[in-house]
Structure formats: C-alpha cells, structure tokens
C-alpha cells in the first residue's frame, strides 16, 4: 500500500524497520601489494610456518583486502603473549597514521604442501569470528609456487559448521541431521586481484621485453619428482592417522554393542527377579539401576579429527592430480618437440 | 636552499666514484605507490624509509619500505622521527635482518628539502641511498633513480654534498613469478588455475619458437643481416637437446607417463576410500 508511490520512495520508518540481511560473502578482492607482501614473508621464512594479519574493508558481498602486516615468530614463552598484542596495536596505530585501512578482516598463514586443516585453524577462526563479522583466512603455499602456480586460497568456515562447533557436539546423529559432511567444513571463496592505476602504469613499464618470464621457466620444468614424493609421503601419513581414527570408531561401536548386550542380560535378570518377587508378594525392584556401571553411557568419540584428516587427504589428492595433469602436458610437449 | 617553486635538479649519470649500485625489489615499488595514493591531501609527495641489507659485494639490496608522515613547507621540513623509530622496531621484530639502507621520496628530481632529510638519514646509516620514484610521470615514463651523497671538498674544506646517481637494478623476479598479468591490470577476475597457466606458458613458448624460425628463415633468405653471435646461440640451444635414439626416448616418456598415471590412480582410490569411510562413520546407527 505504501509502495504505490514507486519503489524509490520508501518512508523512513520502512527503511528503519527492515532488517539488514548481510549479503553472503562471495568474492575476496585482494590488492597486488598484499599478494607480494604475503609471498615475500612466507618465502623468507619457509619452511617455518608464519602468520600475519590482513587489513581491509568489508563492502557488501566483497571483502576487500588492502594491506597486511606480518607477525613475528612467536616463542613458546608465556610473557611474550602481551608483547604480541602490543605489537599488533603498535602496527595498527602506525598504519593508521599513513591512512591505511585500520580494519582487521582476517589473517594469512603459510602452509607446507597444503596440510593446513588443523584444529588450531578452526579455533583461530572461532576467535576471530567473535569480534569480526566477516573474516577470511588466506593460505599461501610457497612450495607449490615453485612449480609456477600461484597457490593462494581464501577460506572461511561454513556457517553450519560454526554453529555445530559452538555446541561442541560432533556425534553421528547431529551430523546426519544437518547433513554435514567433511566437504562442508571449509568454504573456499574465489579471489579477485585489483591494482591501483598507478601501479599498473608502473608495472606495464617495468615489464621485461621478452615474453617468457621466470614463471614460465618454473612451469615448464620437467622434474616434479621431489614434490610428488613429499606429497605422497604426507598422504601416507594421513592415511595412517585416518585408519587410527577409524579403529577408534570400531572400538567404540564394539564397546557400545557389548554394553547393550550386557544391559539386556541384566534387564532379563531383573525381570525374572521381579516375577519371583511378585510371586512372593514383595515390591518389584526398579528396572533401571543407574549406579550399575554397565548403564553408564560411553562417550562417542568426536568426529572432528577424522573430518579434518579427510579434508587434508582430499587436498593432497587434488594436488597430486593437478601436478600429474601438468606433467602430462609437459611430457607430451617434449615428445612432440623431439619428433619434429 | 629551497625555492618557493620546486627547482628540480636533474642529474645525468656521471661516472660514479663508488661502485655502489642498488637492487630494488618490486614490493618496494608497490609500497611506494600505495603510500602515494593514500597520502594526505595537503602533501605533495611522500617520504619514507627504505629497509634492506648490504650484500657482500657492495650492492645494496632494498627489500622493504614504509612511509613516514612528514610536513613540508617552503622553508622547512619536519619528519615524524618517533613514528620512524616505532615502525622500525616493530618491523625488526619480524625480520631482524632488515636494516635501514636509505630513504625514498616520490617526485622526479632532488629538491632542496631533500638535502636536510638526507642529512637526517645519514645520521642513522653511514651511507644512505636516496631513491626517487617519479609518480607524476613527468618525463613521460616512471623513472626510478637512486642517489648517494658525495662530499665535494676543496683541499681540506668541505664545500657541499652532491647527490650522485648510482645504477638501479630492478629485480622483478618475484613479480614475474606472480605473473605480470595479475599485477598489471586494474582488476583480474580470478587467479589462473594450474592448467590455464600451463596453457599460457606453452603458448608463449610456441610464440618464441615461431619467432626464432622466422628469424632463421629471414637470415637464410637474406632479408635480415645475420648476426653470428645469435646464430651460435641458436645452434648451441638446439645442440643441447640430448641425443637419444627414438626408442630410448619413447621408453623414457612412457615410463614417466606410467608413473604419473599410477599416482593418479592412487589418488582416485584414496578418494573413493574416503567417501566410503565417511559413509560408514556417519551412517552407522545404534539400535
């Protein structure tokens, strides 16, 4: 009724009363500067794993990352905790003075061959999520970048998973209810790269004349054996862990069924006792006895670890596939060259 | 020493008495441009500190930079020294090997105020490098120049200090790794995946080979004067292909192909196993 004046004019009351629904995050827009900084930091300290903070703006369905700064390597000392917080405050203050966006939008970390799905990652996500509405984690893999691929990924925990994690309940039933499987834990968000006009002008001018760059040299290299070997090694380790987790489950199920059998037996005994008592005219005993240890419910092991491991394995498999594909290309190219 | 309108002293490269040269990483240029774009409205140029290290052969490797707020009026320059020290301390916590090696400013030449700033920096570092990045593109291109201060003396008396230009080497290796396509355009929709990158590389290789073919054809037909050094280079490259009999080569290629196929098979089995395991884990119901 109030809309017959057209969609343009909405009364103030209307606007104020409609709830703003945050559009879901669809794209992460990173500046070239941030990419270079992340690469430099991760490469300098590789193979150690390093982290850093991302700064930027949250605009609609796009999360813009405009700057970042690295974190110093944390010792295991407790008193350095306060130092870490101080460092962060100091950096943000200094960057504010030069007009850099002072808004934390997430963090980045480097990884080794893609084995980043750990419980710590999830916990860090939850920590960040409490303070910031939308945060993202960027994972960079310096070892893969030696193959000529820019291995940059933007990750976010899916909402369904976050709720489940908060309730700390990972039993099979809950997961079936939500229809949540291991692919639903992390959501990968596509990355867009943007550069200011000044930078593009400079880069256009500074580009070397020859069309072939270092990137191509890396890509066309024939030997991928070391990389594949390490990938397969990690894969084997993960499979071992997965089989251990599965054994845990089997153990649990066996215990559970044994316990149920015991419960049934006890119940039968109780019933026959009760019949005897009724015949003797005494009160029947209760059919349950919570103090009996066979009634104690066995806790179901959490499936979080197995999910994470499964994720990692899937990642390794994907990487192997990707590298194999590239190698096929290279081998065929070599063959064609040799023939001609 | 400063005039009301900027007198720009442009130095042509003279023979430098020192063998100093500077290597600049692309990150520094990105940083400088970003700071320039974000500068406060009343400032005409941006000034900041350069961080890096001095390599054993004397070249200065400039790896990082940060902007320092400053105030510049016609006759004085004020630099926020506290900020400079704070940032330095913070950044050194991350990477203690990076030390101050100089300072930068945007704009083409060296102005009067720069001498004062250079003096300040020479108190921090024995021989600071002054880098100018022309964001105004005054000469029609973005010039990046580096200077060191050389003392002019007559006998025993110090007359003045002169900004002498030193060669700058722009090491764009990292930028190349990321790919100039990503860094050049104002907006890239997505990062190229493995196969797309492979395709691009192979196309570039093909283009190169075509160029070489064309060149050789031209030389043979006499269109282009032959250059013996290029010819030698080409023949060396062709000769560097290992001489294998076709059967040996086929065997090599097929072995590699089989290895990779095996790995692919392994990973497919693993994935099947994963989905099976997951079904077993979550689908099992207790009655």
UniProtKB/TrEMBL annotation, chain A:
Taxonomic superkingdom: Eukaryota
Residue ranges of domain MPN in the record: 28-161
Major subcellular location class: cytoplasm
InterPro entries: eIF3h, eIF3h_C, JAMM/MPN+_dom, JAMM_MPN+_peptidase_M67A, MPN
Protein's cellular compartments: Cytoplasm
Basic and acidic residues: compositionally biased ranges: 270-281
A Pfam family assignment: eIF3h_C
Key words of the record: Cytoplasm, Initiation factor, Protein biosynthesis
Keyword Protein biosynthesis applies: yes
Region (Disordered) residue spans: 267-297
Function according to Swiss-Prot or TrEMBL: Component of the eukaryotic translation initiation factor 3 (eIF-3) complex, which is involved in protein synthesis of a specialized repertoire of mRNAs and, together with other initiation factors, stimulates binding of mRNA and methionyl-tRNAi to the 40S ribosome. The eIF-3 complex specifically targets and initiates translation of a subset of mRNAs involved in cell proliferation.
Subunit structure: Component of the eukaryotic translation initiation factor 3 (eIF-3) complex.
Family, per entry: Belongs to the eIF-3 subunit H family.
Name the UniProt record assigns to this protein: Eukaryotic translation initiation factor 3 subunit H
Source species of the chain: Hevea brasiliensis (Para rubber tree)
Source lineage: Eukaryota, Viridiplantae, Streptophyta, Embryophyta, Tracheophyta
TrEMBL record, chain B:
Cross-referenced PROSITE patterns: MPN
TM region(s), chain numbering: none
Superkingdom to which the source organism belongs: Eukaryota
InterPro entries, sorted: eIF3f (IPR027531), EIF3F/CSN6-like_C (IPR024969), JAMM/MPN+_dom (IPR000555), MPN (IPR037518)
Domain MPN, chain residue ranges per copy: 22-153
Main location: cytoplasm
Keywords: Cytoplasm, Initiation factor, Protein biosynthesis
Compartments, record wording: Cytoplasm
Subunit architecture: Component of the eukaryotic translation initiation factor 3 (eIF-3) complex.
PANTHER family xref list: EUKARYOTIC TRANSLATION INITIATION FACTOR 3 SUBUNIT F, EUKARYOTIC TRANSLATION INITIATION FACTOR 3 SUBUNIT F-RELATED
Family: Belongs to the eIF-3 subunit F family.
Record function comment: Component of the eukaryotic translation initiation factor 3 (eIF-3) complex, which is involved in protein synthesis of a specialized repertoire of mRNAs and, together with other initiation factors, stimulates binding of mRNA and methionyl-tRNAi to the 40S ribosome. The eIF-3 complex specifically targets and initiates translation of a subset of mRNAs involved in cell proliferation.
HAMAP family: eIF3f
Name of the protein this chain belongs to: Eukaryotic translation initiation factor 3 subunit F
């Amino acid at each position: 009724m109030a809309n017959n004046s057209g969609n343009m004019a909405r009364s103030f009351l209307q606007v104020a009363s409609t709830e703003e629904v945050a559009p879901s995050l669809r794209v992460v827009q990173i500046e070239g500067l941030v990419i270079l900084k992340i690469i430099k930091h991760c490469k300098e300290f590789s193979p150690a794993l390093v982290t850093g903070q991302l700064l930027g703006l949250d605009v609609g369905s796009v999360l813009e990352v405009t700057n970042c700064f690295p974190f110093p390597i944390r010792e295991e000392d407790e008193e350095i905790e306060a130092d870490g917080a101080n460092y962060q405050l100091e950096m943000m203050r200094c960057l504010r003075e030069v007009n850099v966006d002072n808004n934390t939008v997430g963090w980045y970390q480097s990884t080794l061959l893609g084995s980043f799905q750990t419980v710590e990652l999830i916990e860090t996500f939850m920590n960040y999520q409490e303070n910031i509405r939308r945060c993202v984690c960027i994972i960079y893999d310096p070892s893969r970048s030696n193959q000529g691929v820019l291995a940059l990924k933007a990750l976010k925990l899916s909402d369904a998973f976050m709720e489940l994690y908060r309730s700390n309940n990972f039993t099979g039933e809950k997961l079936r209810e939500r229809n949540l499987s291991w692919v639903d834990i992390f959501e990968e968000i596509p990355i867009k790269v943007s550069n200011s006009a000044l930078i593009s002008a400079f880069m256009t001018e500074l580009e070397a004349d020859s069309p072939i760059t270092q990137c191509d040299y890396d890509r066309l290299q024939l030997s991928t054996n070391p990389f594949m070997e390490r990938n397969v090694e990690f894969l084997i380790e993960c499979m071992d862990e997965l089989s251990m987790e599965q054994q845990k489950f089997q153990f649990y199920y066996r215990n559970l069924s044994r316990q149920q059998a015991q419960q049934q037996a006890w119940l039968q005994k109780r019933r026959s006792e009760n019949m005897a008592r009724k015949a003797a005219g005494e009160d029947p005993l209760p059919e349950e006895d919570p103090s009996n240890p066979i009634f104690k419910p066995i806790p179901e092991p959490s499936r979080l670890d197995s999910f994470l491991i499964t994720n990692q394995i899937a990642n390794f498999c994907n990487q192997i596939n990707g590298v194999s594909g590239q190698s096929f290309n290279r081998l065929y190219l070599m063959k064609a060259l040799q023939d001609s | 020493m400063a005039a009301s309108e900027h007198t720009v002293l442009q130095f042509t490269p003279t023979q430098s008495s020192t063998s100093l040269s500077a290597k600049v990483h692309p990150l520094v240029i990105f940083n400088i441009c970003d700071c320039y774009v974000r500068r406060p409205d009343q400032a005409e140029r941006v000034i900041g500190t350069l961080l890096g290290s001095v390599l054993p052969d004397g070249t200065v490797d400039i790896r990082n930079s940060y902007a320092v707020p400053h105030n510049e009026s016609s006759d004085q320059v004020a630099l926020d020294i506290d900020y400079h020290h704070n940032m330095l301390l913070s950044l050194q916590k991350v990477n203690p090997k990076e030390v101050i090696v100089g300072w930068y400013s945007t704009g083409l030449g060296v102005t009067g105020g720069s001498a004062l700033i250079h003096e300040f920096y020479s108190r921090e570092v024995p021989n600071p490098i002054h880098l100018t990045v022309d964001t105004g593109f005054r000469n029609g291109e973005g010039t990046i120049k580096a200077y060191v201060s050389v003392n002019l003396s007559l006998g025993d008396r110090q007359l003045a200090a002169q900004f002498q230009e030193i060669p700058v080497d722009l090491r764009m290796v990292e930028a190349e790794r990321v790919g100039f396509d990503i860094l050049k355009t104002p907006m890239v929709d997505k990062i190229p995946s493995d196969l797309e990158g492979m395709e691009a590389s192979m196309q570039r290789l093909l283009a190169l080979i075509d160029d070489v073919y064309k060149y050789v054809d031209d030389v043979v037909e006499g269109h282009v004067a032959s250059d013996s050094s290029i010819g030698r280079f080409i023949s060396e490259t062709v000769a560097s292909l290992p001489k294998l009999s076709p059967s040996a080569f086929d065997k090599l290629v097929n072995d590699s192909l089989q290895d990779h196929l095996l790995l692919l098979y392994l990973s497919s089995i693993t994935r099947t196993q994963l989905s099976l395991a997951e079904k077993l884990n979550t689908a099992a119901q207790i009655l």
